[in-house]
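haha ok so turns out i had the wrong file open the whole time. this is the CORRECT one, sorry everyone. sequence first:
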Amino acid sequence: MYLKNIEVQGFKSFAQKINFEFHNGITGIVGPNGSGKSNVGDAVRWVLGEQSARSLRGGNMQDVIFSGTETRKPLGYASVAITLDNSDHKLPVDFNEVTVTRRLYRSGESEYKINGSACRLKDINEMFYDTGIGKEGYSIIGQGQIDRILSGKPEERRELFDEAAGIVKFKRRKNTTIKKLEEERQNLVRVTDILSELTRQLEPLEKQSETARVYLSKRETLKELDVNMFLMEYAAAAKELKELEEKNIIAQNQLKDTQSSYDRTKVEYERLEQELEDLNSKMDALRISGQEQAIRKQQLEGQINVLNEQILAGAQNEEHYKGRIQTIEAELSVRIDSKKKLEEEKTDIYAQLKAVRKKLSEEEEKLRTAQENMEACTLEVENGKNEIIEILNSRANVKGKAQRFDAMMEQAEIRKAEISQRILRLKSEEEEQQTILTTARKQYDEITSQIENANEECEHLNLSVMKIQEKLKEQNTKLEAEQTAYHREASRLDSLRNIAERYDGYGNSIRRVMEQKERVPGIQGVVADLIQVNKDYEIAIETALGGSIQNIVTDNEQTAKTMIEFLKKNRYGRATFLPMSSISPRGEFTPKEALKEPGVVGIASELVSVASQYQQITKFLLGRVLVVDNIDHAIAIGKKYRHSLRMVTTEGESLSPGGSMTGGAFRNNSNLLGRRREIEELETKVNHLKQNLTEMQNAVEENKNQRNRLRDAIAGFQEKLRQKYIEQNTARMNIKQQEKKAEEIRSGYAQINRDQAEIKRQVMEIRQDHDRIARELENSKQDEKELESFIEAKQSELDEWKEEEKKITRELEEIRLQSSALEQKEKFDQENLSRLKAEITAFMTEKEDIYQSLAHSSEEMEKK
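then structure:
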């Protein structure tokens, strides 16, 4: 096994990727102080897992990443890979060549790889155990390390000897196993405590289980009854719905017939009105023709005949007017009669409609009352059911009490038997033995109290540990999600930064020129990098710029000339340059009134943000481009100003002077304008995610420390408990010994008699409680029967109200149909009445006009 090569990029002084090849023999790296010779050794130690930044001659681990120079930007990560020949398979992997890679990002994230596959630092350490190659191995000797080894502690030198002897792997495995065994021992103690606690809970849980089974049985019965009730109500509702649908069909047919009759009457009325208008037109035409003939005759026959004809024509007109007046009066009489009939009919319909609406209001009030009564009955039924459930639960509790009293009775009987035995055995009592027994019992009680307090404290601490464990579990889940989000956004940010640094999306000639930016200070940058745009206007501005977005801004014409010669010389292609010294705006935007048109957002040059020195460039490129919200407004503005403006929409359509339009699906994979904005947004998001991640890691670490402190406290209490249990057992043995001696003494009759009296009193109380519980059970059954009767009565009342609701609903539908028919008839009569009023007004106006014509005609005839 030997080292084949080292590949370094971004580590300390190695900005460019560099590959160190190693062959047979000795390889030396020479150079002056500060040239980076020691960085090669640091790179090897770092890739093998060195975690101390001080050992790598840095303040923190990010210091190993290339930090940049005056002419070169800092890098975002550092990467080192070493390749080892493993043809002798000294390393425990199935590869003839092993490559170990470590990469560190400025965000603090680090990753390890073995032959390109992600792995843990632990995997790398285990792979190099007993080979002498690890970060602490003897194969890598750095500056001052020999002196540190010679002057170091024996324990530090022992680690080197263990590494050389090949036993480090086994010692570390042993330590790991011992740690796991201790953790499992602690787990066993906790499991024993949990089992003892669960054993004490078995008997109460069995009683609760019996109560729960009774409850579940009752609940299933109740559910079945509810389902049956729902099915019955569903069938009744379906039947009612079918009846309503039939009524609806009948009403629709009646409405259709009425509408058809109304349409026929309206058509007939319009036809008659058209005939009357045609007749009037013919009469007017004939009258005009007669006047023209009379004038022609008067001209031929002379002034006298003209006057005679005029008199005759006046008489004819007078007769015609009189005839027309008679006709109008007859028509007025007919329409006035019709109007009176319609008004009488309307009054009758209004009275009927008022009565129907009053009846409808009364029925709706009845329906609301019925529905309120139904809701009240339903609520009472539900309350009754809940009370029955409460009675059943109470009965189960009472039965549990009865069982407990029976158990207490048995215990009392047992105590009576014990006391009888003690009476037979005890004969006397000695004060010294009683004092010793009392002292022993007092000591035992004190120890028991201390044990109970310690147990309570342990339970409290265990509960705290469990809460912290749950909290840690939640925090770890959130931490993993935050880490995933942070890595995803950080990788995306690095990708965008690399894309921006490489000028991806630009032409080859643009990239070649921008590579010379550090060498030629006069290159300011491409247009897309110099302007900032709101996200809402990115598409519009990029459309307005078109190919100009990749133009290169220079300080003067000489710089542009130099770079054009550079492109020619190397045959890199063509590029457009914008010298700041020669570019000037193309004039102010005109006409100004176009800015007030609907949909106009503004002039493109005013919607971007640039440094002050680039204002002229921006006005040159965008100063005469109008941004509009959509293409419809743009087309309207173009027509109004005779297609003399260049416009772009926020969706990417373009309208050029002359009327040409460009548009369609906007595909912008490079997103040159939004790239900087996206990088800034991602930087903010990544910093926020990093802050959240750090806070969560600190919180997790704090909880882990607190959990470890609690576990240490629990271990201390458990050790104390073991000592107390030993003391308790000793005290218990002393009490038993003293009680054994006291059993031989017959001096305890008074205490025994008091115990007997107490037991009798307890037995009497237990019997009284037992009788009281029996009465409570009987009362509970009686209450249940009364509630069931009450529920049945309320259910019957609920059914009656439901029938009443159905009846009222049917009557309401009939009344609503009647009301609708009356309202429609009232509307029809109102339309006819309005029409008649209009006709009467027209006839009266015409009559007045005719009377005026007659008076004027009589005056003319009298004059002629």
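The longest strand covers residues 77-85.
again sry for the mixup
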